[in-house]
Amino acid sequence: MKTMALARACVWRGVGAGRRPWLFHGTFSNMSTEAMGAASADAPAPPPPPEAADDSNHGRRELRSVSQRFTNISYSPLRMNLVAKLLRRLTVPEALAQSTFTKKKGGAIAKDLIERCASVAEMKYGLSHDQLLVDKIFVTQGKGQKMVRTMGRGRTGIEFVRNSHLNVTLTEIDFEDRIRAASTRNQQTKWKKLEARAGSRAARP
Length: 205
Fold this sequence. Notes:
- The protein is 47% helix and 20% strand.
- By secondary structure, it is α+β, with helices and mostly antiparallel strands.
- It has a domain at 65-173: CATH 3.90.470.10.
- It has a 3-stranded antiparallel β-sheet.
- Strand 3 and strand 4 form a beta hairpin.
- Residues 35-60 are annotated as: Disordered.
- It comes from Rhizochromulina marina.
- Belongs to the universal ribosomal protein uL22 family.
């Protein structure tokens, strides 16, 4: 009886602290302190946390990559981004062909940067053009400049000239992974031909 009275007093004292006594009244009135301690001791232990998944690459070798950058290009970032979207995720021969025949000014700039990046990869790792992929190519805004804009009737205004930065990352192609992930037979044939061409060029003295 003393335990029940003490429990009820503790519960009703908690009303001022914002607690709701009807949530705890049945628990304290029907179970003594000793019984509560025994129940907590007999409660099963919580299950152990699941083991973290193995994030290893399962023996895959790390693909080599080379990055280059052109800064302060006198070309709008919006227009340069159109060329970047055209060349992204293409192989180096395809990217060079697309940048050669595009009519945009940024095509020649992107072609020079890709060729320079491919030459660095060849000198550093011995990779040919057929073994490289344009993994990342993105544009950032460079330093702008305000200039005088001449208008009619002798008036002048302000013209803002925008510059851009072009960033390119070429990555080595994993032909086995590409062939395995191909969704159509034509894509598989494409990667197999490219692998054979890259192997024949690598075998040349």
